[in-house]
Amino acid sequence: MRIATAQWPIGKPASFAAWRERLRAALAEARDAGAVLAVLPEYLALELAGIFPAAVHADLAASLAALQDLYADWQQAFAGCAREFDLHLLAGTFLLRQANGRYRNRAELFAPDGRRWFQDKLTLTGFEHAARVIEPGDRLQVFDTALGRLAVNVCYDSEFPLYARRQYEAGARLLLVPSCTDTAAGATRVRVGCLARALENQIHVVQSVTAGEATWSPALDTNTGVAAVFAPSDRGLPDDGVVAAAAPAAVWAYADVDAAALDQVRREGQVANAADWDAQLRPDVVAAVVR
To answer: How far apart are CA 79 and CA 126, in angstroms?
Structure first.
């Protein structure tokens, strides 16, 4: 199947309608390129804060509060695009207010037939802790879709191996990583996490990123990273693990992936990381010994 993963240049939309039309145009391009799955980045919904006055969009807490009134329209826009373009569509993330007044950083997947799933970010970054209004999710999920079993690690979650491992054990064979990083170091950390999760579980990992400058936003101010699709480095796959990567000015990176090819790698590859996972849990090696 062909995957489109976004290197989304952050803009400052004049209205929700203008934002929706830009989204539709980009997704139409992905569909015309043959994609059946499109992946958008973390914090994408915060781009919509640009339609509010400066007193709102320059303040994260005020932005999050104001965005809640757009959530139904946001969902409708993505559900409509998934249906119109016959795409499974990971809609980046929306910071959704919970009953306790705090927000969860939620990635939603929309299917062409109207089904939808979500995965909340489970481990908060220092920035998210400092905001004092964001809380972690409490559930790790796998989505049973027409494209196979998919899973999501939201940005920082990709840097922790046990999340992806549990999802792999539940049958996920494709991991989607919507991300937003503001430094080269942050971009490297998520990229290395994606490569490691692909290696350990012998699966494809898809990373989407935010791009460009948005000085009007405290959360989207500077954006780094390269949208890419990763695989384990093994027979028939790229030596560096990079199946595809977006060009500097491109909105999309495209990759054709074959789940059956990775099934074969897990059976006949040079290494068997996925099968050998439990070997590191040897009961006779319970702790490192200092000598």
So the answer is: 32
The Cα–Cα gap between 213 and 182 comes to: 9
Q: Quick one: DSSP state of residue 188?
A: H
Provide the 10 A C-beta neighbour count for residue 108. 21
Terminal CA-CA length for the chain: 52
Compute the distance between CA of residue 4 and CA of residue 176 in angstroms, rounded to an integer. Answer: 11
pLDDT tens figures, 269-281: 999 999 999 999 8
Check residue 134 and report its DSSP letter: B
Cβ neighbour number for residue 13 with a 10 Å cutoff? 17
Residue 226 to residue 207: CA distance in whole angstroms = 8
Name residue 161's amino acid.
Answer: P
C-alpha 178/C-alpha 286 separation (Å) is 35
Rounded CA separation 106/62 (Å): 18
Q: What is the DSSP string of 46-107?
A: GGGGGGS-HHHHTSHHHHHHHHGGGHHHHHHHHHHHHHHTT-EEEEEEEEEEPTTS-EEEEE
- Contact criterion met (CB below 8 Å) for 15 and 44: no
109 near 152, Cβ under 8 Å? Answer: yes
Total count of residues recorded for the chain: 291
Provide DSSP, 211-236.
EEE-TT-SSSSEEB---EEE--SSTT
**Do the Cβ atoms of 147 and 174 come closer than 8 Å?**
yes
Instruction: Say how far apart CA 12 and CA 276 lie, in whole Å.
Output: 48
Q: What is the pTM of this model?
A: 0.97
Classify 236 in phi/psi space as left (phi over 0), alpha (psi -120 to 50) or beta: left
* 146-186 tens-digit pLDDT: 999 999 999 999 999 999 999 999 999 999 999 999 999 99
